[in-house]
Amino acid sequence: MTDRKMIYLCLAHMSDEGWEQKYVKEAFDTNWVVPLGPNVYGFEEDLKAFVNQRVASLASGDMPTLSPLNKEVVALSAGTAAVHLGLLACGVGQGDEVCVQSFTFCASSHPITYLGATPVFIDSEPTTWNMDPDLLEKAILDRKEKTGKYPKAIVPVALYGMPYNCDRIMAIANKYGIPVLEDAAEGFGSRYKGQVLGTFGRYGVLSFNGNKMITTSGGGALVCDNAELKNKILWYATQAREAYPYYQHEAIGYNYRMSNICAGIGRGQMKIVNDHIAHHKHVQKMYEDLLRDVEGVTVHSAPSPDYDSNYWLCTICLDPALRIQGQENAYKEVITSAVGGAAGVIRAVDSATTDCQPNDNVEALRLFMLDKKVEARPVWKPMHKQPVYRNAPAYVNGVSESIFKVGMCLPAGPYVSDDDVRYIVQCIKEAIIR
Ligand SMILES: *Cc1c(COP(=O)(O)O)cnc(C)c1O
Predict the structure, then answer these.
(1) Could you tell me if the CB of 78 is within 6 A of ligand 1?
(2) 91, 193, 404, 406: which could form a disulfide with 317 (CB 3.0–4.6 Å)?
(3) Would you place residue 24 in the very low, low, confident or very high pLDDT band (cuts 50, 70, 90)?
């Protein structure tokens, strides 16, 4: 037991064949060590083919292939950059409002503030944990009444890979003529009714950070409708340079293009992306089977076969009445080192608690699992409960806040073996006081 290796939530995993290194070496050999080049274009072609394939809805049983879509993809330096440029391309600017899912990682909403706009946070529906369509419509109407303007964009998020209700969100967006920017950073390869996330809205965000479904070490992409829009995004991503022999600028641009080195890693990763997704789904299935009879622990799963999640992270909820070993000591100590495998503490805090935090049994289970060399972490804290957004409008129903108090992410990455899943479930059972 003592020589067990730490099991992390989701670690970067390269192809056995070394494809990533082959493409990176090619970049060095041909001296394309710049933020453009053959790997960038090749990666974009791979991504394009991947997001454009469609199958008939899984709900219909068989899966005949449908005619592919014709979306374009721009490779960028980060998913956060893709959110930023997607918002910009939707026309978001100073004084505007953007409806964004509250239950998300901060990269969905922070770029709204980069543009001088205000996020309007929308709470979740209990089934998918994603943007509640009813609250979205309520918010749109209420903002119009209060400010005289409709929100400039709608940002649903595929939390932990789970698709949002695409039909309803798109219908509401179309009804009011508001563009949708899908944040599919965690949902790369997830599908709704057979169609890949990121291709429903006007723009779609993908992320290839080190912990996502595939990695370029760091990177992202924006999915868009056609070559003209792609060109516009590209222009903004490369400092908005006008076509003169000297640097001439008529708009503010950004340095957001993907490096040809990173894109080489991405091309290699695209050869194993389907294996990664299949593995995450397999791990989810194992958790569902092994935790089915564990009282007080519920595995979060798709509400219907229309929602084909990649299960980037597997998540569970703990009944507040469940008692966990060490629970009386939860939150007694200020965090001084990394929670799990992350980058460590960059800015220390002087308190062990906040006014909105996971229940004691969740914190106790996290610590218990850490002691067993398993990384587990609370689900994302809703943005409308974050101090930095205390003044932002929010339309809430209590769903994301209550899930935050009981939810926990479990390891699901390519390195998590069947044996690891059995061990993790065994540890959870051991932690519960009966
Ligand atoms: C990771 C992530 C992003 C941003 O991606 P980066 O590539 O890390 O910049 C955006 N939104 C969500 C929900 C994410 O989880």
Answers:
(1) yes
(2) 406
(3) very high
**Token couple for 26:** 């090619």
401 Cβ below 6 A of ligand 1: no
pTM for this entry: 0.95
Predicted confidence (pLDDT) per residue in 410-425, tens digit: 999 999 999 999 999 9
Residue 381: name the closest of 353, 398, 359, 358 by CA. 358
Q: How many CA atoms lie within 13 A of 232 on its CB side?
A: 15
Q: Is the pLDDT of residue 2 over 90?
A: no
Nearest ligand 1 atom, CA 108:
11
Cβ contact 221:74 at 8 Å = yes
What is the average pLDDT across 270-274?
Answer: 97
Quote the CA–CA distance of 425 and 421 in Å, as a whole number: 6
Q: Is the CB of 410 under 6 A from ligand 1?
A: no
Contacts 24+ apart (CB under 8 A), 94-98: 96/149, 96/151, 96/152, 97/143, 97/147, 97/149, 97/151, 97/152, 97/393, 98/151, 98/152, 98/153, 98/154, 98/155
Ranking 62-71, 146-155, 232-241, 365-374 by mean pLDDT, the lowest is 62-71
> Over the stretch 295-325, which tens digit does the pLDDT of each residue have?
999 999 999 999 999 999 999 999 999 999 9
For residue 305, what are the contacts with CB-CB under 8 A and spacing of at least 6? 57, 58, 59
Instruction: Spell out the residues 6+ positions from residue 320 whose beta carbon is closer than 8 angstroms to its own.
Output: 359, 361, 405, 406
